[in-house]
Write a structure and sequence with these properties.
439 residues, alpha+beta, Double Stranded RNA Binding Domain, DNA polymerase, domain 1, hpI Integrase, Chain A, 3 domains, 8 strands
Length: 439
């Protein structure tokens, strides 16, 4: 039979087909154009598909081996040949596609951990302020949930599962969910995957358009957090000095109560930013949430609280540190110990409701209002930015007024903790309520 013979291939004809003395030969099928059986001098027979990429006879001749006749049925070979011919008619080149796929398969897979390392390095290069907290969120809650999978396997479903897990995870205090961590993960993961898409690591951001579920009417009506009562504030202050509570954390809590500053900014307080003689804490703009430098007046009670923090031996720049290397973190574990200490003050937990560290900031702000502090001054003390036009034209820091307000609040807290020491302090409870006044 000629080396270029064309017949209707059958199992029997393929079995009888053999290599001529001159070398290999091919038997072409008349049923499917381009399908053939090639027989090598060794006697090995394989199905092949021949075609031209490009236009007509000017195109490049291509050949694809489908498999050996012993492991591939004739019907399957014809079906595969038809698919290849169809791809060619659409302008594709299956041989080139296979070559590129093989090259891609040989490349080392870009995993999630590698992408996170590159993202962290890029954030550090650009001086992103919250890069450490962003990295912690993504590594702990995204990488920790899906594992070190290929980056393109990180899809919307896996991120949603990680966020949902945080929203429903039991807390050490007996509550359910970590809404702040879940919100941060949702935002951080979306920004990270968009960056990956911009860098060409993935074809598109799988979280495009991903938003939190719309709040119900009941959720919209609920006010976040609350103002602590005086009895609760006394209990928390007492618990900060308990042996169960880390002394650095206890000192930090007392500073939060007296200054109303953000917990993260306070945890990152550095000795070089303090002027204890002048009674001033200068927070650089690189450390503030809104990127605006902030000066915090420090009454003597606050200075005493700062100085009560254990000094770490060595070159640790942080005032509040549990390891001498990094600023304080690990709030869940620290607050769990605090709640254990609070249990000793209120054994049946009937006198203290659920509260958060941010409630100390709300209590501080509400207390300033009760003390009659000018609202603009009170907002400046929290480093809240005023309206745009005011921020542009009014640059007066009103430090003197803020010092006076800080002293009044510190004196009021002192009167709560020790009534005998604050007999001359005007009480600021609600005049229209017979209940115990909030702070």
């Amino acid at each position: 039979m000629s080396a270029k013979a064309k017949v209707k291939l059958t199992k029997e004809r393929i079995r009888q087909f053999s290599t001529p003395p001159t070398g290999e030969a091919t038997l072409w099928d008349t049923e499917v154009l381009g399908l053939g059986v090639r027989c090598l001098p060794s006697g090995v027979k394989s199905y092949i598909v021949s075609y031209r990429s490009g236009y007509g006879r000017s195109g490049t001749a291509r050949r694809i081996t489908l498999g050996k006749v012993e492991s591939l049925r004739l019907e399957d070979a014809r079906e595969a040949a038809l698919e290849i011919r169809g791809a060619v008619l659409k302008g594709r080149d299956p041989v080139e596609e296979r070559r590129l796929a093989q090259l891609e398969a040989k490349k080392p897979k870009l995993t999630l951990s590698t992408a996170l390392e590159r993202y962290s390095a890029d954030q550090e290069r650009r001086g992103v302020k919250d890069r450490k907290s962003v990295s912690s969120s993504l590594n702990l809650h995204l990488l920790g949930h899906v594992g070190d999978v290929p980056l393109h396997d990180v899809d919307r479903r896996s991120v949603v599962e990680a966020v949902t897990l945080l929203e429903t995870k039991p807390r050490p205090d007996g509550g359910i969910g970590f809404p702040g961590a879940a919100k941060a993960l949702r935002s951080n993961a979306s920004t990270f995957l968009k960056w990956c898409a911009d860098q060409g690591m993935i074809s598109a951001n799988p979280l495009q358009g991903y938003r939190a579920a719309r709040k119900t009417r009941e959720q919209r009506l609920q006010q976040p957090g609350r103002e602590l009562r005086e009895s609760e504030l006394i209990a928390i202050w007492s618990a900060t000095k308990s042996e169960e509570v880390n002394p650095a954390f206890g000192a930090l809590l007392r500073v939060l109560i007296l200054t109303g500053q953000r917990k993260t900014e306070t945890a990152r307080m550095r000795w070089e930013d303090l002027d204890l003689a002048e009674g001033l804490w200068r927070i650089p703009k690189s450390e503030t949430k809104n990127g605006v430098a902030h000066e915090v007046p420090l009454p003597k009670a606050v200075v005493d609280a700062i100085q009560s923090a254990p000094r770490v031996v060595g070159d640790c720049p942080w005032v509040f540190s549990t390891n001498g290397k990094t600023p304080m973190s690990g709030w869940s574990k620290l607050t769990a110990k605090l709640r254990d200490a609070l249990g000793a003050v209120f054994p049946d937990n009937s006198e203290i409701e659920h509260w958060t560290l941010h409630d100390l900031r709300r209590t501080f702000r509400s207390g300033l209002t009760r003390l009659g502090v000018n609202p603009e001054v009170a907002e400046i003390m929290l480093n809240h930015r005023p309206e745009t036009l005011i921020a542009v034209y009014d640059r007066e820091p009103r430090l003197g007024e803020r010092r006076e307000a800080a002293e009044r609040w510190a004196l009021h807290v002192s009167s709560i903790l020790d009534p005998d020491a604050g007999k001359n302090v005007v009480q600021i409870g609600r005049a229209d309520s017979a209940e115990e006044p909030a702070v």
